[in-house]
Amino acid sequence: MLPRWGSVPLNRIGHEDVAAWVSELSVSGLSPATVRYVHRVLSLQLALAVKAGRIASNPAEGVRLPRASRSSEKRFLSHEEVRALAEACDDYAGVIYVLAYCGLRWGELAALRVGRVDPLRRRLVVAESVTEVRGALVWGSPKSHQQRSVPFPAFVGEHLVAASAGKGTEELVFTARRGGVLRNLNFRRDVFDLAAVEAGLAGLTPHELRHTAASLAVSAGANVKAVQRMLGHASAAMTLDVYSGLFDDDLDGVADRLDSARSVHPLCTGGEVVPLKQITPGR
């Protein structure tokens, strides 16, 4: 990002310039996921400039991005596998449960503050995200640029309450062992990767817990709109695009339930029709 934009004044960066840069990155051989990530970093920086009043609008918004490949098969964990991973993570079990049952992105989890967790309503509010760029932390809005309210199961609430104990409302729920933001790379090196091997899930990534959250929600009966709101997708169409296979299985379940309903209430296919007698008023 620096070679292209390091010497360019903020007010000289236009939408067309960003679009052309994204195209150049795409043809350079970078994967679609990498191009999307680099664009995301630039967009976060420009969003901060808008917030500071240095530019009027974010020129990176609305740029057409390369479609991320969906060819690789997604990995979905069962409840038992999530439990095994959480137990292997020891003190950070709550991190695993929030990722696997609430579907937060890593940056959203790392930016979650105590005041945005409501144990009584069993809701947490996703209002900001933090990304590590060349060792520096960049704070911004969630990927959808909109805050959302996400429900959590009671047992996940117990971990959230424990992690929030003794902290002020503006403090982070999950932090590094020595305090500060819980950084993805450090967490993977020190905790997650070793725990995944111990749980028999070698090669697992934290982001796959977001896929798991979608899978577990659908298996519990959530419809596409509910999953969209939980994950913070821009539209239900995006949710269907990413997790179409899960909802195909859901349609199979609908067919099974229709079969069951028909067996309980069989249709009349024959038999004598008995006429109803007309009742004369006053009799």
Query: Which bin fits the share of residues in helices?
Result: 40-55%
The tally of strands reads 5
Low-confidence stretches: none
In spatial order, strands of the major sheet run 1-2-5
Structural class: mainly alpha
* CATH topology name of the largest domain: hpI Integrase, Chain A
Profile the largest sheet: 3 strands, antiparallel
Provide a count of the helices. 11
Architecture of the largest domain in CATH? Orthogonal Bundle
- C-alpha geometry: globular
* Cα distance spanning the termini: 91 Å
Mean pLDDT: 86
Radius of gyration: 25 Å
Structure, described:
Helix content is 48%, strand content 7%. It has 283 residues and is mainly alpha-helical. The protein folds into 2 domains: 1-69, Tyrosine recombinase, N-terminal domain (DNA polymerase, domain 1, Orthogonal Bundle), CATH 1.10.150; 79-231, Intergrase catalytic core (hpI Integrase, Chain A, Orthogonal Bundle). It has a 3-stranded antiparallel beta sheet with strand order 1-2-5. A hairpin with a 4-residue loop joins strand 1 and strand 2. The longest helix is centred in the last third of the chain and has 29 residues, at 236-264. It is globular, with a radius of gyration of 25 Å.
Question: Which helices and strands, and how do they pair?
Answer:
Elements: H1 2-5, H2 15-27, H3 32-51, H4 79-88, H5 93-102, H6 106-110, E1 117-118, E2 123-126, E3 129-133, E4 136-140, E5 148-151, H7 154-164, H8 184-198, H9 208-219, H10 224-231, H11 236-264
Antiparallel strand pairs: 1-2, 2-5, 3-4
